[in-house]
Amino acid sequence: MKNQRITGGGGVQLHVVEAGNARGRPILFIHGFSQCWLAWSRQLTSELSDDHRLVAVDLRGHGLSDKPTSGYDNSKLWADDIDAVIRTLHLEQPILCGWSYGLVALDYIRHYGDHAIGGLHLVGAITKIGTEDAMSVITPEFLSLVPGFFTTNVDESVRSLKSLLRMCFPQEPSAEDLYLMLGYNVSVPPYVRQALFSRSLDNDDVLVQIRKPVLLTHGADDAIVKPAVVDRHKALVSHAQIDIMPNTGHAPFWDQFTTFNRRLGDFAARVVT
Fold first, then answer.
1. Is the model's pTM score more than 0.90?
2. What residue ranges define each of the domains in the chain, with the CATH number in brackets?
3. CA nearest to 46, candidates 255, 261, 254
4. What is the helix (H) or strand (E) element at residue 231, kind and residue range?
5. Using one digit for the tens of pLDDT, what is the confidence trace for 166-216?
6. Class of residue 118 by CB neighbours under 10 A (exposed 0-12, middle 13-18, buried 19+)
7. N or C terminus of the chain: which is more exposed, having fewer CB within 10 Å?
């Protein structure tokens, strides 16, 4: 794998990892709330690398990217980050694959449109935040953890993040995987987590304008984002393909990675430049 730094919006330095076939269709993986590029390790080291150029970014405030104290409420900065990755790496018509915190992929489309991308893949994703309607698709069990994400008390923060990770999977990961995940979750400062969750944004107007292919993937047993959100998204993006994966939760790319990777590869193969 190749690690590099890219200058994003406002001069923020973003950490990016690349693997796979340099001549293949690019897939740009965008992780979720309080995560990092390692969430996509079962894609970056998979058979997808035979035919695709695989790129995973640490979002601002996460992983090995810079962690500024402000700017997380600025949709244009998020959009500029994704645009910088696409332009700097010369990604030709990449598929944006966004997990959970789907706001970032849509920040990009809001400000740059969808002409430079090949398609959009939303995985267990929310597309709005900050209103009662937006919160209605998030489970009460997840919302009960939110205060612990913002605390500077280490013990309370670790307990909440460990509970979050366990909610992502129908069956708990191995101790090795769980504590690796906990490590990169804990590395995100509480002020970043609070800023991400404090945004107020509704992307319905963006979704209805998307003309490129869209795939909506959701775990049937998702304990964080209710599967009913897929119907909402489909109503706005009538041409979207839907993949409800049985026996999997909020992170189908991890616990059902073989099936997930095959379906993502099939989607990418059908995207026409």
1. yes
2. 2-270 (3.40.50.1820)
3. 261
4. helix 229-236
5. 999 999 899 999 999 999 999 999 999 999 999 999 999 999 999 999 999
6. buried
7. C
Sorted by sequence, the CB contacts under 8 Å of residue 11 that are 6+ apart come out as none
Structure tokens at 29: 């993986």
DSSP string, 23-77: TSEEEEEE--TT--GGGGHHHHTSTHHHHEEEEEE--TTSTTS---SS-TT-HHH
Residue 84 DSSP class: H
Both structure tokens of 132: 């009662």
Angstrom distance (rounded) from CA 211 to CA 115: 9
Closest among 22, 3, 25 to 14, alpha carbons compared: 3
Give the DSSP H/E element, type plus range, for residue 20.
strand 13-20
| Cβ pair 161, 186 in contact under 8 A | yes
